[in-house]
Specification:
It is built from 10 helices and 8 strands. With about 450 residues, it is of the alpha+beta class.
């Protein structure tokens, strides 16, 4: 029995690490964006702000609708009130007689209705609430675009780190293979010991680069997890490659106009000016009268016992209008109007500054895209030339007409050309993601 327990413990001990290693979940760019939109907490807060704004619209409409109130009251007279009459039994005296009035129990039920006929504040408030709801929708869209852009950039960073890691691994593999050939040729006396030393140094110099590339890839995955809103403990890997997707030329040519038209942050500022102007109108409406209609329906009963029936209630009803007009409020209304006007001017200044910043940002991104495109076109040719040079240097070295230094230089040139190419593609994709965000575009295919 003891042996069986030991065998079982050994089995679970050996199998536990295998079970604890979870297979990495592959995610595409579209899946990463979808997960980021689902998990982003700032986006959830923006969604709640939209819900609150829509609730404010319903609240504003509520002030324009009639209000109905139903109230009931019961009164128990512990000591009934009295009023005084002359003593009619003794007319010549100055004495009075106290007479109790009322009953011990009193009941009344009142239904009252009130409808605002004219109140400029209510009218302005309804319009302002609708504009405020539009502002919250634009801010939600802005946060949504920001989330998509952040996930795209993080995803592209993982792809770049993966490309560099693959490149470094391939370089190390090529260097190790070259080192094996050099050692064989050194044994045969075809090359000098110096060439073997240079090949060994080349291999050892590449090992730290491979380790650095592995670490950069792991760090870029952490950044992607953060952008997606998932835990660091969740094991993921990316499914994709750094493919050059060119932005249409017509979008680059009209980028400024598109940004000024569709950028959600800019649209939110324009709507905010409307909201502030509505606040000015609301404060000025305090100078205007308020006209309301009202009506009440009341049932009353009074008795000295609780034996109450429907016949004991008496009905009364009334309708009317109320008009109120503020004559003087210590200049508070003037001050509030001035403050509201200042807020409008501040919003206008912020809008002008944002438009200027937006134009500058669009111009900068378009330049980055054009420069990255030129680098991509140039590096494609450079990679082809560097690949051919590396093959020639390797062939010359194997045939004995070249040196190890030529091979190392050719490999370094090829590595640099590949890095420059994928870096240019990465820069282009990141700039295109930033441009989509600033233009208010949500591409269906990232």
């Amino acid at each position: 029995m003891q042996k069986i327990i030991i065998i079982l413990l050994a089995f679970f001990t050996l199998s536990y690490p295998l079970q604890s290693q979870q297979a990495a979940r592959l995610v595409t760019l579209e899946q990463a964006v979808a997960i980021g939109l689902q998990n982003n907490r700032d986006l959830k807060s923006a969604r709640l702000e939209v819900d609150r704004a829509e609730a404010r619209v319903r609240e504003a409409w509520g002030y324009a609708l009639p209000s109905l109130d139903l109230a009931g009251r019961y009164t128990r007279a512990l000591e009934r009130p009295v009023f005084f009459l002359p003593d009619f039994a003794d007319p010549g005296s100055n004495r009075t007689v106290a007479v109790q009035i009322g009953t011990e129990h009193a009941f009344d039920v009142t239904l009252s209705a009130r409808q605002t006929i004219f109140n400029s504040t209510v009218i302005v408030g309804v319009g302002a609430a609708h504009v405020y709801a539009d502002v919250s929708h634009q801010l939600y869209r802005q946060k949504e675009l920001e989330t998509v852009a952040n996930v795209r950039k993080a995803f592209y960073s993982v792809l770049l780190a993966g490309e560099v890691r693959t490149l470094m691994r391939a370089n190390l593999q090529n260097a190790e293979e070259n080192l094996r050939n050099v050692r064989t040729m050194t044994t045969q006396g075809l090359v000098s010991e110096y060439d073997q030393l240079r090949a060994e140094v080349g291999v050892e110099n590449l090992r730290p680069e491979v380790i650095r590339a592995e670490n950069n890839y792991a760090l870029s995955l952490d950044v992607l997890r953060t952008a997606m809103g998932i835990g660091v403990s969740e094991t993921i890997d990316v499914d994709g490659s750094l493919e050059h997707r060119r932005v249409p030329e017509e979008i680059l040519l009209s980028a400024t106009e598109l940004a000024l038209r569709d950028n959600p942050g800019l649209q939110a500022l324009k709507l905010q000016i409307e909201v502030n102007e509505a606040f000015v109108s609301a404060e000025r409406s305090n100078y205007l009268p308020i006209l309301s209609a009202f009506g009440t329906l009341q049932y009353q009963a009074a008795k000295n016992t609780f034996a109450i029936s429907t016949n004991d209630f008496f009905r009364s009803a009334q309708v009317g209008f109320s008009l109120s007009f503020n004559i003087f409020q210590g200049l508070q209304t003037n001050a509030k109007v001035d403050q509201a006007v200042i807020e409008v001017r501040k919003s206008e200044e912020q809008l002008a500054r944002t438009e200027t910043d937006l134009r500058t940002a669009v111009h900068s991104l378009v330049l980055q895209l054009r420069q990255a495109q030129q680098r991509i076109d140039a590096q494609e040719k450079t990679v082809e030339q560097a690949t051919r040079g590396y093959r020639l240097a390797t062939t010359r070295f194997v045939s004995g007409s070249g040196t190890q230094l030529e091979v190392n230089d050719a490999q370094l040139a090829l590595t640099q050309a590949n890095v420059n190419r994928i870096q240019a593609i990465y820069d282009y994709l990141v700039a295109s993601a930033a441009l989509d965000q600033i233009l208010g575009r949500m591409p269906e295919k990232q």
